[in-house]
Design goal:
By secondary structure, the protein is of the alpha/beta class. It contains 7 helices and 11 strands. It has helices at about 35-50, 65-75, 95-105, 125-135, 190-195, 215-220, 245-255; strands at about 1-5, 10, 30-35, 55-60, 80-85, 110-115, 140-150, 150-160, 160-170, 170-175, 200. Strand 8 (about 150-160) and strand 9 (about 160-170) form a beta hairpin. Bound molecules: flavin-adenine dinucleotide.
């Protein structure tokens, strides 16, 4: 079973994210991590491989610095990685990302493509659908549990109030939901062996992709303005002496805001 996991490099979720003068995230200044949602997809891939055999390949589109997070996924147990990196990719929008990842996927044997449900920086959640569309293969989202058999996959899909059981032929794209499993920590043995595992580097030229079709030049969306969310005010504190006084304060508060 050939499983490919799409993994995004994102800024550390606790880091204060600032946009640069071109309204793009100033990534260089930030510690980066494996997109937390993708750790569940990696763990699911490793469990499926342990149960059914095969290979787990990690696919990342990102700057050269993404090699650090790739090594972490190899230390978790992925067999090898493909890193699409090219200066012309900076600022690539959602559709460009899908075009690049799907082109790379056509060169990697894949019976199953796993993704997270969303990234923690842009959070569009659109890439899994875009990959399924570009590759012309089925999509199942919000997977909690996956059972493989020779030609198809049975997915327990999270829905409000419970889950559905969805079956689809392979190959397919499946997004794995946060909390579907307990992602393993890389062992020391895993960290050591990750140093020797292959990371195949691909440029846009290697993929025959026109640099003008991706990056800021190829983006179909342009951020024209950005405003930080207003700091939450701590609100008013009232210390009424009596319940009657409290009622008056609350009524005045609601009236002033035309709630009553
Ligand atoms: C703050 C911000 C706002 C943005 N706004 C927009 C916008 O409005 N419109 C737009 O088109 N683009 C936007 N982008 C660009 C967009 O983030 C990238 O194109 C991105 O690569 C794909 O979108 P996503 O992060 O929303 O992915 P999602 O669809 O949220 O990610 C879902 C899954 O897809 C996989 N995946 C996503 N990106 C990669 C990758 N680079 N390599 C490997 N796997 C990946 C992962 O498995 C991930 O869990 C924005 C970026 C930022 C940082």
């Amino acid at each position: 079973m050939n499983i490919v996991v799409c993994v995004k490099q994102v800024p550390d979720t606790t880091a204060r994210k600032e946009l640069g003068p071109d309204f793009r995230l100033n990534r260089a200044a930030l510690e980066s991590v494996v997109n937390p949602f993708d750790e569940y997809a990696i763990e699911e891939a490793l469990r499926l491989k342990e149960a059914n055999g095969g290979e787990v390949v990690v696919l990342v589109m990102g700057p050269p610095s993404a090699e650090d997070i790739i090594r972490k996924t190899l230390a978790m147990g992925a067999d090898r990685a493909v890193h699409v990196t090219d200066p012309a990719l900076a600022g690539t929008d959602w559709s460009g990302t899908c075009a690049v990842l799907s082109t790379a996927l056509r060169r990697i044997p894949h019976d199953l493509v796993l993704t997270g449900t969303e990234s923690t920086d842009a959070r569009s959640g659109l890439v899994p659908g875009g990959l399924s569309e570009a590759l012309g293969i089925p999509l199942v989202t919000y997977a909690v549990k996956l059972e493989l058999d020779a030609e198809s996959i049975k997915v327990h899909r999270q829905v409000p109030g419970g889950y559905q059981e969805v079956q689809t032929p392979l190959p397919a794209v499946v997004s794995v939901v946060k909390g579907a499993n307990e992602p393993r920590y890389p062992s020391l043995k895993g960290i050591m062996s990750a140093k020797r595992k292959e990371i195949q580097k691909l440029t846009l030229a290697d993929l025959d992709i026109d640099p003008a079709s991706v990056g800021l030049h190829g983006a179909r969306t342009v951020v024209t303005a950005s405003q930080a969310r207003a700091e939450k005010s701590s609100g008013e504190v009232a210390r009424p002496e009596t319940p009657e006084e409290a009622a008056v304060i609350i009524a005045d508060f609601l009236q002033a805001r035309k709630y009553i």
